[in-house]
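Board notes, transcribed. Complex of a protein with zinc ion.
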Amino acid sequence: MNFECLFCRSTEGLILYESCQDYFLGKPYIVDYYRCAGCGLVQQFPIPKNINEFYDAYPIHMNKSIFHRIMQKIVMAPVYYQIEQPVTAKVLLDYGCGNGWFLGTLEGQGMELIGFEPDSTHSSRIETFSAFQIFSNLDLLIQSYKGKVDILTMHFVMEHLPNLAEAFSNVTQLLKPGGIFFFTIPNFDSLESRIFGKKWHNLDPPRHLSFPNEKIIRMLSGQYGFRWLRQKSLPFPNGFAGSIPVLLSGHFRFPIFLLMLPFGIIFSRLFPNGIHGYWLVKEL
Ligand SMILES: [Zn+2]
Protein backbone atom coordinates (compact mmCIF):
# COMPACT_ATOMS: atom_id res chain seq x y z
CA MET A 1 0.00 0.00 0.00
CA ASN A 2 1.31 3.46 -0.88
CA PHE A 3 1.71 6.08 1.81
CA GLU A 4 -1.00 8.70 2.20
CA CYS A 5 -0.71 11.41 4.89
CA LEU A 6 -3.68 11.43 7.26
CA PHE A 7 -3.48 15.23 7.41
CA CYS A 8 -2.38 16.72 4.04
CA ARG A 9 -3.01 13.62 1.85
CA SER A 10 0.47 13.83 0.35
CA THR A 11 1.54 10.44 -1.01
CA GLU A 12 5.20 10.93 -0.20
CA GLY A 13 6.49 9.77 3.14
CA LEU A 14 9.82 8.77 4.63
CA ILE A 15 9.87 5.66 6.75
CA LEU A 16 11.12 6.40 10.29
CA TYR A 17 10.48 3.18 12.24
CA GLU A 18 9.54 -0.20 10.83
CA SER A 19 7.79 -3.04 12.69
CA CYS A 20 7.07 -1.32 16.01
CA GLN A 21 5.54 -3.55 18.64
CA ASP A 22 3.33 -2.81 21.61
CA TYR A 23 5.70 -2.85 24.58
CA PHE A 24 3.07 -1.42 26.91
CA LEU A 25 -0.01 -3.64 26.61
CA GLY A 26 1.40 -6.34 24.34
CA LYS A 27 -1.37 -6.10 21.73
CA PRO A 28 -0.60 -8.14 18.62
CA TYR A 29 -0.22 -5.23 16.20
CA ILE A 30 3.02 -4.39 14.42
CA VAL A 31 3.03 -0.89 12.92
CA ASP A 32 5.30 1.44 10.93
CA TYR A 33 5.86 5.19 11.41
CA TYR A 34 6.49 7.67 8.57
CA ARG A 35 7.24 11.36 8.30
CA CYS A 36 5.09 12.99 5.61
CA ALA A 37 7.25 14.72 2.98
CA GLY A 38 4.45 17.26 2.42
CA CYS A 39 3.57 18.54 5.89
CA GLY A 40 6.12 16.81 8.13
CA LEU A 41 3.54 14.99 10.26
CA VAL A 42 4.97 11.88 11.92
CA GLN A 43 2.33 9.16 11.70
CA GLN A 44 1.54 5.50 11.51
CA PHE A 45 0.92 4.07 8.09
CA PRO A 46 -1.17 2.14 7.34
CA ILE A 47 -3.39 2.67 10.38
CA PRO A 48 -4.98 -0.64 11.41
CA LYS A 49 -8.77 -0.64 10.83
CA ASN A 50 -9.91 -1.78 14.25
CA ILE A 51 -8.22 0.86 16.41
CA ASN A 52 -10.79 0.38 19.21
CA GLU A 53 -9.20 -3.00 19.97
CA PHE A 54 -6.02 -1.21 21.05
CA TYR A 55 -7.80 -0.08 24.19
CA ASP A 56 -9.15 -3.28 25.76
CA ALA A 57 -8.05 -3.20 29.40
CA TYR A 58 -6.29 0.15 28.85
CA PRO A 59 -5.14 0.83 32.41
CA ILE A 60 -5.70 4.58 32.54
CA HIS A 61 -9.43 3.97 32.41
CA MET A 62 -9.65 2.02 35.65
CA ASN A 63 -10.47 3.58 38.98
CA LYS A 64 -7.18 3.66 40.79
CA SER A 65 -5.92 3.26 44.35
CA ILE A 66 -5.08 6.19 46.64
CA PHE A 67 -1.39 5.48 46.01
CA HIS A 68 -2.01 5.88 42.28
CA ARG A 69 -3.93 9.07 42.84
CA ILE A 70 -1.14 10.66 44.91
CA MET A 71 1.45 9.59 42.35
CA GLN A 72 -0.75 10.88 39.56
CA LYS A 73 -0.84 14.25 41.27
CA ILE A 74 2.96 14.48 41.55
CA VAL A 75 3.63 13.13 38.07
CA MET A 76 0.70 14.48 36.09
CA ALA A 77 0.00 17.90 37.58
CA PRO A 78 2.62 19.77 35.46
CA VAL A 79 1.12 18.46 32.20
CA TYR A 80 -2.51 19.15 33.08
CA TYR A 81 -4.33 22.42 32.51
CA GLN A 82 -3.77 24.91 35.33
CA ILE A 83 -6.92 26.86 35.87
CA GLU A 84 -6.60 30.59 36.47
CA GLN A 85 -7.78 31.92 39.81
CA PRO A 86 -10.28 33.34 40.52
CA VAL A 87 -12.28 30.92 38.38
CA THR A 88 -14.53 32.69 35.90
CA ALA A 89 -15.22 29.68 33.62
CA LYS A 90 -18.65 28.11 33.93
CA VAL A 91 -18.29 24.91 31.90
CA LEU A 92 -15.17 22.77 31.59
CA LEU A 93 -15.07 19.75 29.30
CA ASP A 94 -12.26 17.21 29.62
CA TYR A 95 -12.31 15.49 26.24
CA GLY A 96 -10.77 12.03 26.67
CA CYS A 97 -11.13 12.25 30.44
CA GLY A 98 -9.52 8.86 31.28
CA ASN A 99 -10.51 7.86 34.80
CA GLY A 100 -11.87 11.34 35.59
CA TRP A 101 -8.89 12.27 37.75
CA PHE A 102 -8.45 15.76 36.29
CA LEU A 103 -12.16 16.58 36.68
CA GLY A 104 -11.89 15.39 40.28
CA THR A 105 -9.15 17.92 41.00
CA LEU A 106 -11.48 20.76 39.93
CA GLU A 107 -14.42 19.94 42.16
CA GLY A 108 -15.74 22.62 44.46
CA GLN A 109 -14.70 25.59 42.29
CA GLY A 110 -18.18 26.35 41.01
CA MET A 111 -17.74 25.00 37.49
CA GLU A 112 -19.93 22.54 35.66
CA LEU A 113 -17.53 19.66 34.97
CA ILE A 114 -18.18 17.26 32.12
CA GLY A 115 -16.15 14.55 30.44
CA PHE A 116 -16.01 12.67 27.16
CA GLU A 117 -14.80 9.11 26.56
CA PRO A 118 -15.72 7.47 23.25
CA ASP A 119 -16.25 3.99 24.68
CA SER A 120 -19.64 3.75 26.40
CA THR A 121 -18.51 0.95 28.75
CA HIS A 122 -15.65 3.17 29.95
CA SER A 123 -17.80 6.27 30.30
CA SER A 124 -20.50 4.52 32.34
CA ARG A 125 -17.83 2.93 34.52
CA ILE A 126 -16.37 6.38 35.28
CA GLU A 127 -19.87 7.62 36.11
CA THR A 128 -20.29 4.84 38.70
CA PHE A 129 -17.47 6.24 40.85
CA SER A 130 -17.70 9.95 40.08
CA ALA A 131 -20.32 12.65 40.09
CA PHE A 132 -19.58 13.91 36.61
CA GLN A 133 -21.60 13.54 33.47
CA ILE A 134 -19.41 11.58 31.05
CA PHE A 135 -20.56 11.57 27.44
CA SER A 136 -19.64 8.76 25.05
CA ASN A 137 -21.78 9.94 22.14
CA LEU A 138 -20.10 12.82 20.35
CA ASP A 139 -23.25 13.95 18.51
CA LEU A 140 -25.17 14.10 21.78
CA LEU A 141 -22.31 16.03 23.42
CA ILE A 142 -22.25 18.59 20.59
CA GLN A 143 -26.04 18.83 20.60
CA SER A 144 -26.09 19.47 24.37
CA TYR A 145 -23.06 21.78 24.70
CA LYS A 146 -22.70 23.55 21.35
CA GLY A 147 -21.10 26.96 21.98
CA LYS A 148 -21.38 26.52 25.77
CA VAL A 149 -17.93 25.32 26.83
CA ASP A 150 -15.50 27.84 28.39
CA ILE A 151 -12.49 25.52 28.69
CA LEU A 152 -11.91 22.36 26.66
CA THR A 153 -8.96 20.20 27.64
CA MET A 154 -7.44 17.25 25.75
CA HIS A 155 -4.66 15.66 27.76
CA PHE A 156 -2.80 13.08 25.66
CA VAL A 157 -5.69 12.64 23.22
CA MET A 158 -4.61 14.22 19.92
CA GLU A 159 -1.98 11.53 19.24
CA HIS A 160 -4.72 8.86 19.39
CA LEU A 161 -7.02 10.46 16.82
CA PRO A 162 -7.20 9.29 13.20
CA ASN A 163 -8.63 12.63 12.02
CA LEU A 164 -7.05 15.82 13.41
CA ALA A 165 -9.19 18.18 11.32
CA GLU A 166 -12.38 16.56 12.60
CA ALA A 167 -11.15 16.97 16.19
CA PHE A 168 -10.54 20.70 15.67
CA SER A 169 -13.92 21.07 14.01
CA ASN A 170 -15.65 19.41 17.00
CA VAL A 171 -13.79 21.60 19.46
CA THR A 172 -14.64 24.80 17.64
CA GLN A 173 -18.33 23.83 17.73
CA LEU A 174 -18.26 23.12 21.45
CA LEU A 175 -16.35 26.19 22.63
CA LYS A 176 -17.83 29.59 23.34
CA PRO A 177 -16.23 32.48 21.44
CA GLY A 178 -13.22 33.38 23.57
CA GLY A 179 -13.12 29.87 25.05
CA ILE A 180 -9.80 28.15 25.76
CA PHE A 181 -8.60 24.99 24.05
CA PHE A 182 -5.72 23.35 25.91
CA PHE A 183 -4.05 20.11 24.85
CA THR A 184 -0.84 18.14 25.25
CA ILE A 185 1.01 16.00 22.70
CA PRO A 186 4.20 13.92 23.09
CA ASN A 187 7.06 15.58 21.22
CA PHE A 188 8.45 13.17 18.64
CA ASP A 189 11.49 15.39 18.10
CA SER A 190 12.39 15.44 21.80
CA LEU A 191 15.65 14.26 23.31
CA GLU A 192 13.99 11.28 25.02
CA SER A 193 12.38 10.19 21.75
CA ARG A 194 15.76 10.31 20.04
CA ILE A 195 17.46 8.42 22.88
CA PHE A 196 14.95 5.56 23.11
CA GLY A 197 13.76 5.39 19.48
CA LYS A 198 11.24 2.58 18.98
CA LYS A 199 11.36 1.89 22.72
CA TRP A 200 10.32 5.43 23.67
CA HIS A 201 7.39 5.04 26.08
CA ASN A 202 5.43 7.85 24.46
CA LEU A 203 5.68 6.33 20.98
CA ASP A 204 3.16 3.83 22.39
CA PRO A 205 2.43 1.86 19.23
CA PRO A 206 -0.19 0.98 18.06
CA ARG A 207 -2.22 3.51 20.08
CA HIS A 208 -0.34 6.69 19.12
CA LEU A 209 -1.33 7.32 15.53
CA SER A 210 0.41 10.64 14.90
CA PHE A 211 2.54 13.32 16.55
CA PRO A 212 1.43 16.74 15.30
CA ASN A 213 4.12 19.37 15.88
CA GLU A 214 3.82 23.13 16.24
CA LYS A 215 3.71 23.69 12.47
CA ILE A 216 0.71 21.34 12.04
CA ILE A 217 -1.06 22.82 15.07
CA ARG A 218 -0.58 26.35 13.71
CA MET A 219 -2.16 25.28 10.40
CA LEU A 220 -5.13 23.61 12.11
CA SER A 221 -5.50 26.51 14.48
CA GLY A 222 -5.78 28.99 11.58
CA GLN A 223 -8.14 26.77 9.61
CA TYR A 224 -10.59 26.29 12.46
CA GLY A 225 -10.76 29.83 13.81
CA PHE A 226 -8.41 29.75 16.76
CA ARG A 227 -6.05 32.45 17.96
CA TRP A 228 -2.61 31.30 19.11
CA LEU A 229 -2.00 31.92 22.79
CA ARG A 230 1.13 29.90 23.50
CA GLN A 231 3.00 26.64 23.23
CA LYS A 232 5.22 25.34 26.01
CA SER A 233 7.40 22.34 26.78
CA LEU A 234 6.15 20.55 29.88
CA PRO A 235 8.05 18.16 32.18
CA PHE A 236 6.62 14.62 32.23
CA PRO A 237 8.75 11.89 33.86
CA ASN A 238 6.92 8.93 32.29
CA GLY A 239 8.72 9.28 28.95
CA PHE A 240 12.06 8.43 30.55
CA ALA A 241 10.83 6.23 33.42
CA GLY A 242 8.56 4.17 31.15
CA SER A 243 11.22 3.58 28.49
CA ILE A 244 13.85 2.10 30.84
CA PRO A 245 11.84 -1.11 31.64
CA VAL A 246 11.47 -1.74 27.88
CA LEU A 247 15.17 -1.19 27.36
CA LEU A 248 16.07 -3.57 30.22
CA SER A 249 13.47 -6.29 29.89
CA GLY A 250 11.83 -6.02 26.48
CA HIS A 251 8.49 -4.78 27.74
CA PHE A 252 6.89 -2.31 30.13
CA ARG A 253 7.07 -3.39 33.78
CA PHE A 254 5.39 -1.32 36.42
CA PRO A 255 7.86 -2.04 39.31
CA ILE A 256 10.86 -0.93 37.21
CA PHE A 257 8.88 2.11 36.07
CA LEU A 258 8.28 3.04 39.73
CA LEU A 259 11.97 2.61 40.58
CA MET A 260 12.92 4.81 37.63
CA LEU A 261 10.35 7.50 38.38
CA PRO A 262 12.68 9.67 40.53
CA PHE A 263 15.24 9.60 37.69
CA GLY A 264 12.45 10.40 35.26
CA ILE A 265 11.51 13.41 37.37
CA ILE A 266 15.12 14.65 37.31
CA PHE A 267 15.50 13.94 33.56
CA SER A 268 12.24 15.67 32.66
CA ARG A 269 13.22 18.76 34.68
CA LEU A 270 16.65 18.89 33.01
CA PHE A 271 15.25 18.29 29.51
CA PRO A 272 11.61 19.33 29.66
CA ASN A 273 10.76 18.79 26.00
CA GLY A 274 9.10 15.35 26.04
CA ILE A 275 5.62 16.90 25.99
CA HIS A 276 4.28 20.03 24.32
CA GLY A 277 1.33 21.91 25.74
CA TYR A 278 -0.77 24.21 23.51
CA TRP A 279 -3.13 27.01 24.50
CA LEU A 280 -5.50 28.31 21.81
CA VAL A 281 -8.46 30.70 21.99
CA LYS A 282 -11.58 30.39 19.90
CA GLU A 283 -11.92 33.64 17.93
CA LEU A 284 -14.80 35.89 18.85
ZN1 LIG B 1 1.22 15.44 5.33
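The CA atoms of residues 192 and 274 lie 6 Å apart. The chain has one domain: 58-282.
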